[in-house]
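Aim 2, interim progress: modelling of the 3R-hydroxydecanoyl-coenzyme A-bound target.
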Amino acid sequence: MPIDPATAIGADLGETSFSWGSSDVLLYHLGIGAGTHPDDPTELRYTYERDLRVLPTFATVAATMHETEPPQVSFPGVEIDLAKVVHGKQEIVAHRPLPAEGKARARGRIADVQDKGKAAVIVQETEVTGEAGEPLWTARSSIFAKGEGGFGGERGPSESVELPDRAPDEVIDTATLGQQALLYRLCGDRNPLHIDPEFAKAAGFDAPILHGLCTYGMVAKAVTGAVLGGDPDSVASWSARFAGIVLPGETLRTSIWDTGRRYLVSTVAVERDAPVLADGVLTAR
Ligand SMILES: CCCCCCC[C@@H](O)CC(=O)SCCNC(=O)CCNC(=O)[C@H](O)C(C)(C)COP(=O)(O)OP(=O)(O)OC[C@H]1O[C@@H](n2cnc3c(N)ncnc32)[C@H](O)[C@@H]1OP(=O)(O)O
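Predicted structure of the complex, ligand included:
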């Protein structure tokens, strides 16, 4: 059976150790579009090793930055073909500003496996601590596996973030590059869905799509620029649901509602007027 909820839910994924340096952070920032406005002085915080700051979304790649093999959806009680999955949701809570270089330990577990009938949702939680045992970040990510529901599990909660009934306080357009996914995959996600036209077709898409985590980082950076003075150290947490695909080259239009250090965020792809990110919440420290 591809999903056995009794084995999967609560399964300990063990502990891994990893380290990163400023070159990893610089490459990640380029992968999410930093440096495309060199006249903006806050961009140097992302692109120059002198006084480098780290956008907390770097946490999504820090442990796997040097991976060169495609990811596998293989956990205790879960075996799923990579072509069936898309990234569903992502949350990062940064317990402190991320250092530009460091060593850390990650301990992961399967927090939940939800049976949505036509699909399964696998929720993974990871706690990351620094060398002295200090908490660095907590990550929670959901994988949406099409056609893998019906295994007799719980449906799980139906959560959504209600947006205020008024115009957004800020609207930011962010261009993605035609080669955005080719660049971003060098940050450790070599899923062929983002480069191989045949694989993308077999997975049900017309063409390779952009990594969800690339969009997640680009929008976090855009919101940070719009409402936090471009200071990535001010980002305390960021969560969002991947509501629709992005095709490399499309423009992301991000609407932001300021509800007081808690910014509600929604993003569409301008060219198709189609949803991209929903239920977005970025909090500031
Ligand atoms: C270990 C490493 C493994 C590797 C991981 C892969 C790594 C990456 O390389 C992969 C990627 O980056 S893929 C690109 C990023 N993701 C996407 O583009 C997905 C975009 N979203 C969609 O296509 C649809 O919203 C879609 C398909 C997600 C959902 O649309 P629908 O099928 O229309 O769903 P809907 O009928 O609205 O809802 C059914 C139930 O599912 C819940 N749900 C919906 N969207 C969800 C989402 N994004 N995440 C989690 N749950 C979600 C709904 O709440 C609903 O459940 P309920 O009825 O109980 O409320």
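The chain has six helices and twelve strands. The chain has one domain: 5-284.
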